[in-house]
Amino acid sequence: MPRLLLALALLLPALPSAGEDLYSLGMEQRRRGDLQEAKRTFLKMLDRDPQSGGALEGLGLVCLSLRDYEGAREHLSRWNQMKPGSAYILWNLARADSALEREEDLFNDLRGASEADPLDLRIWRRLDDLLALRPGALPFGRIYKSIGTEDLQTARPQRIVYEGRSGGFKLQARPHRRLDLVFGYGARQEAQRNDTRGFSYFDILDQNLSFGLRARPRKGLDFAGEYGQSFLSDNKGQGVGNSAFSRAKLSGEWRTRPLTLRAKAAREPYFLRGAGGSSYFAILRDASANLEAESDVQGVTLLLRGGLEAFSEHTTLRRWSLSGIKEYGNHLFRAGFSKSYQEYTGAAPDGRIQFVGNDAWSARYRLLREDFYRADLGYSYSSYYDANRLQELDGGLALWAPFYRPLCLEYRFDAVDYRAPVDGYRSSDSTEHWVGPHWRRMLRPGWWAHLAWEHGFESDTRGAYDANAVLGETEYYLRDRLSVQLQGRLSRSTVRDDSYSLRLAGRCSF
Question: Which domain, by its residues, includes 375?
């Protein structure tokens, strides 16, 4: 008997406590999406132990999922006082402060989290997004070249070269805590050449000066406006001639607890190919207005969009769409419907824009467990008003190496199926499969790198062929003062489809 009692005494410390049982139960209920039951479980746990960090963590996470951001902030702030300097707590506190539009608290949360864990990339990126709206300079640049075969549905396919380069900067100042002033300059060169027949379609230089402001009259209400002037000229040939065109943008957002409303309006130049005259493009005025309404209904985020677009040659288009997103635990569902238009590659014989309308239905599912696996699958069906139809199936799978988390094997595919090819807009069938290793790692505090190689198996009207692609990315963050992002990509196929691109973006805060 004494030996039996001794054995039981040795086993008892290994049994979970009541608090541990409730914590595991609450987290499992949260992962299943049973948020109200999870909240009751964590409240019971907090009643038993008012200093329970696990209960405060669970309540904070559940309140975030329920969009009770005041409640989330209350519980997470208490936990942060009990355990200061935790990047995990500060990150979740930042989520609540972001939703509550407590900008200075959000900045302090993210800065504290970056100091507590300088190897967490998502913290640096979120901090950079916030600082990109504050006083500073934002330079950018891009170079690209792409060579591919077009008009595959015709008897005379041609190799076309697209190339361009662009660069510029934005300067931002904050004369008042509710007002930002923005000045920008950008230059962009775009060219298209026919490699099969040996001539250039166009080579255009577009320089743009702009001035704008962002205003925040009160919490939950934002306005932004921008006016600019584009100066267009031809480097070679007769693309657009020499001309100037004004641009303007207006936007506003109103956020309330049940509903978010957004409105946008813009006036921009539109380049219409083959509209007659001595130039390759006719420059039209494109005036657009768009409205969005977003709301959460029974845990489903619904987004309704509608828009009107009017061109100076008297073409008017109306678009609208409705989509819904439901996320719980590791699962995400997305579905939607849209009524829109696809543009032809050139003007109609009378010089007007050509579009074909379509109704599209889509659905997507994603399963994600960070640093372990990710799987997604999507399907869309589009019915065109010219009796054509499009079915597209795409998806992918990513598996992280269990012995070395920076290494991941990724696979993705895309299959496009049209009822019939149409001369005038892209409508040829194709399939592609890509697979290869990806390596992502924080090399040191604030410095992240991504290297990848992928092999592709593709097919279209030219038959089946292979391709290879190499990708390199790096991001560097110097606390809250400076950031640099650099991305390069190179691809080549066995049917001589080649492309490369190099992109640079930065931020220097004042």
Answer: 297-427
